[in-house]
Design brief:
- This protein is mostly helical.
- The protein has 2 domains: 64 residues; 58 residues.
- The protein has 5 helices and no strands.
- Helix 1 packs antiparallel against helix 2 and helix 3 runs antiparallel to helix 4.
- It is flat and about 50 Å long.
């Protein structure tokens, strides 16, 4: 295993676990740990962001490249994730099963649209 793959594996596991634990701490009322959950989740998100930047540096690529394509891709990804999250909330919180599934599927389709945007149409 290459060094960059090992570093990516370790950082993604630690960051993902901290982020997931923070979400559980913040969202489960039985735990009553909203403030602590936000802190732990933010630390996990920072580790995941650092992992992306470190991986790009180890690949010999520039840390951040901002152009029209990357900004458009980021906007499409953010909109897709938000729509998917709203669909999940509609199903689990607001008891709107059918419309929540429809909205969630629209969010999944938006996220699937990222594949040809990132890879490019041939």
């Amino acid at each position: 295993m290459k060094k960059k793959n090992l570093v990516t594996l370790i950082m993604s596991v630690v960051g993902g676990l901290l982020f997931a634990l923070g979400m559980c701490m913040g969202l489960l009322p039985e735990w009553d740990a909203l403030t602590e959950g936000v802190i732990v989740g933010a630390i996990g998100a920072i580790i995941l962001l650092a992992m992306v930047l470190i991986r790009r540096k180890m690949d010999g690529k520039p840390m951040i490249v901002l152009n029209g394509k990357t900004i458009g891709t980021a906007i499409l990804g953010i909109v897709g994730v938000l729509v998917l999250g709203v669909g999940m909330c509609m199903v689990m919180v607001w008891n709107m099963l059918v419309w929540g599934i429809v909205v969630g599927l629209v969010g999944i389709v938006l996220l699937l649209c990222l594949i040809p945007v990132i890879k490019g149409l041939k």
